[in-house]
Amino acid sequence: WSDLAVMASGASVWQHPSFLRGMENLLTDLLAEPAMAEFLLDRFTDFYVAYFDRMLAAARGRIDILRIADDLGTQTGLLFGPEMFATFIAPRLKRLIEMAHRHGVKVMFHSCGSIVPFIEQLIELGVDILDPLQVSAVNMEPQMLKDRFGSRLCLHGSIDTQHLLPKGTPDEVAATVRRMCRILGRDGGFILAPCHVLQVDVSTANVLALYDTGFACTSC
How far apart are CA 220 and CA 61, in angstroms? Predict the structure, then answer.
């Protein structure tokens, strides 16, 4: 598969701790029990840094991308503010990102939702690819994302899995793919993909419309 990018996935410093502790409890810990939150986040971070360090070393250059998945937003805004991000999330993400870069591996960071206030910090931390560009979330407007961040960050995703793919027609899917390639693919730095995992409510016709149109878009 030397002509394709190979990605290792599964790293997390926030989302996986929230599964163990419970989202409401962990959010409360950030304010009421910060030592508890830091302890839990560190345990997961320590594990994933060591785990993927061994994996990337063993792969000897065959892995191109490390994907970190930590949903930090909702449909309308952030789970917590930039100060909480800087205190609890950024230092731990930095450890994972620096480890990956030492192996010559690019970092894809996944977060659904409306996360524009975090993107600048993610770039500063060294994130190379931002996924999934949930364009149906508030303020995640493709043209704005390209104009503000596209010269410093590869953008991945953008094809809506909430409404367009399950409910739209193949022609509507194809038109959206062409529009996203035109906007986000300008001057490169765009990987066309669904906004999230394709679910069983997406028809085969719409899947084919997505990928056949994408392959035909020279701007992609």
Answer: 26
Q: Is 214 helix (H, G, I), strand (E, B) or coil?
A: helix
| Rounded mean pLDDT, 132-151 | 96
- Evaluate if residue 219 carries a pLDDT over 60: no
If you compute the radius of gyration of the chain from its CA atoms, what whole number of angstroms results? 18
Tell me the residue type at 33: E
Is residue 155 within 8 Å of residue 145, measured between CB atoms?
yes
**Pick from 153, 155, 156: nearest CA to 127:** 153
Three-class DSSP category at 87: helix
For residues 205 and 199, give the distance between their C-alpha atoms in angstroms, rounded to a whole number: 14
| CA dist., res. 135 & res. 132, Å (int) | 9
Indicate the pLDDT class of residue 217, thresholds 50, 70 and 90.
confident
Closest of 129, 31, 43 to residue 83, by C-alpha: 31
3-state secondary structure 158-203: EECCCCHHHHCCHHHHHHHHHHHHHHHCCCCCEEEEECCCCCCCCC
Answer whether residue 220 shows pLDDT above 60. no
Residue 87 corresponds to which tokens in the numbers above?
A: 């205190």
Q: What is this structure's pTM? A: 0.95
Task: Quickly count: other Cβ atoms within 10 Å of residue 151's Cβ.
Answer: 10
**What number of helices (H) and strands (E) belong to the chain?**
10, 6
DSSP E strands in 44-128: the ranges are 65-69, 106-110
In one letter, which amino acid is 104? G
